[in-house]
Amino acid sequence: MRRHVLIVGGVALVTAVAGVAVAASASAGTTTYEAEAATNTLRGGAHAVACGRCSGGARVTGVGLLGQLTFTGVVAEHTGPTKLAVTYYGPDARTAQISVNGGVAAAVAFPATRGSTRPGTMRITATLKAGDNTIAFGNPVGAAPDIDKLVITTDGTPPTPVPTATGSGEPGATATVTPPPSSSTPPQPSQSAPPTSTAPSPSPTESPSGNAAFEAEVVTLVNQERAKIDCPAVTVDDRLTAAARAHSADMAARDYFSHTTPEGVDFATRITNAGYRWSGAAENIAKGQRTPQEVMTSWMNSDGHKANILNCGYKNLGVGVAADSSGTLLWTQDFASPL
Predict the structure, then answer these.
(1) Is the Cα dihedral 85, 86, 92, 98 positive or negative?
(2) Which of 79, 72, 88 has the alpha carbon at shortest distance from 162?
(3) Are 138 and 64 in contact (CB under 8 A)?
(4) pLDDT (tens digit, 9 = 90+) per residue, 182-196?
C-alpha cells in the first residue's frame, strides 16, 4: 500500500458561502413557523410527535441520518442576513446541517438542553432572499436535535453580520492506496482491522445532499485537466459520491481535517463501506476554497493531489462539499477503479 499525506500553503479569505452562521444576538422575531406544520416537508424518518411544552403542541423528531425537516415558505422582507431563532429539544449536544434554499449545508452545534422535556434556543443568522425561502435541517452522520419552531425577525432590527473565516493554512491533503498488481481483492488499508465507525456508512441512496452544481463543476475541471495529457475522462459513481459527501459533511460537523475519522476509519474503508469494490483508490481533501476553480487550482499546484487527478488508471470519481458553522467549505474527491 502506498500512502502519503500532503499539506500545502494558505488560501484567500473565505466568505460564508452556505449562508448560515451561529450568531450571539438576541432575537425579537415576530413570525413563527411551526416544525410540524403541514406545509413543511418531512422525509426519511422525520416525523411529528406530541409535546405538551412545545409551541403548537408538537415537535419534529427523527431529524438526522436519513431524516430531514424542511421549512417551506419562510418569508424574508429583504435579501440579506436575517436573524432566526430555532427552538429545539436535545438531552445531548447534537449537530444539525442547515441548508438555505438548497445551498451548501452548514454544520451548527446545538448544546444539550436540560433534559428531553426542556427546550433550548439557538440563534443564527441566515442569508435569505426577499420573499419565500426554504430552510432544511438534517445531519447525514448522526442525530440532530428535535425541532419545535423557527422564529424570524421582521421588526427591522439589524441582524448580526455573517462572519467570515480566513484560510486555514491546510487547504488540502491527499492519500492514495494501490494494491499489488497480482491482487484479486482490495487490500486492507492497514495491517490491522480499523476500528468500526460509530456512524453508519451511507449507501448511494443515503448520500447527504452536498452541492450538486459545485460537485459537477469539479468533475468537469478534473476531466479538462486529464484531457490535456490524453488521459481518459473519469465518470461519476454514486457510491463514491456518497462516500465523499459523507466525509466532507462529517469533517464539517465534527471540526476535523483528515483522511481518517476520529474513530480511525480511513478513506479506503469508507469507499468499501459505500459498496464500491475497488482495485485502486485515492482521496484528495481540501479546506477553505470558495469555488470549484479555487479548489482545483490548489490541488493542481500540489504534486500529490495533481498525481491523483492525472492518474490515468482511475475510472471513477465522487466529489463532496459541505460547509462548517462559519461557512468554510470542505471538499473531498474519491477516485477509484473497480475490480
Answers:
(1) negative
(2) 79
(3) yes
(4) 333 333 333 222 323
